[in-house]
Amino acid sequence: MYDRNLxxxxxxxxxxxxxxxxxxxxxxxxxxxxxxxIKVIGxxxxxxxxxxxxxxxxxxYAMKILKKSKIIREKKIxxxxxxxxxxxxxxxxxxxxxxxxxxxxxxxxFIMDICTGGEIFFHLNNFKRFPEQLAKFYFIEILxxxxxxxx
Length: 151
Prior knowledge:
The chain has four helices and five strands, in the order E-E-E-H-H-E-E-H-H. It has 151 residues and is α+β, with helices and mostly antiparallel strands. It has two domains: 1-20 and 30-116, Phosphorylase Kinase, domain 1; 118-151. Strands 1-2-3-5-4 form a five-stranded antiparallel β-sheet. A hairpin with a 3-residue loop joins strand 1 and strand 2 (47-54). The radius of gyration is 18 Å and the shape is globular.
C-alpha cells in the first residue's frame, strides 16, 4: 500500500502479500511484461517514470519509459544513448543504479532503483533554507557522487 499513512490499520483494511517465485533457470532477456506497473511517479520532457514491481522477485523499481518517436523528432538520440551508456557503468550508493535497459517497437525502458523521499528541491522549498547540518549532509552526498563520476 504505497499511499498509506503510518497509522495503525483500521478494521477491514486489507494488506496484500507479494511473494517471490523461485527461478529454476536464468532468464536471458527481460521485457516490460516482466513488471507489474503500479503508478506514475514522475514526468519529464522526454519520459515518464512509473513505480513497478518485478513479477518474479516482488522488488520495486522505477521504470523510465521514453517514446522513440519523440526522441527522434527532438533529435535527442545521442543524449539518451549516452545516458544509458553512463548509467550502466555506475555503481555508487549516491547515484541511481540502472538494472536493465530494453526496448519495444515504440519505447525505450530503463529500470532503475526507486528513490523514495522525493526531490531535493521539494524539501528545500519546504525548509526555505536548510539547517547547516542538513545542507552539509546533502552537499557531501552530492560531492561524493560527483567525485565517483569523475574518477
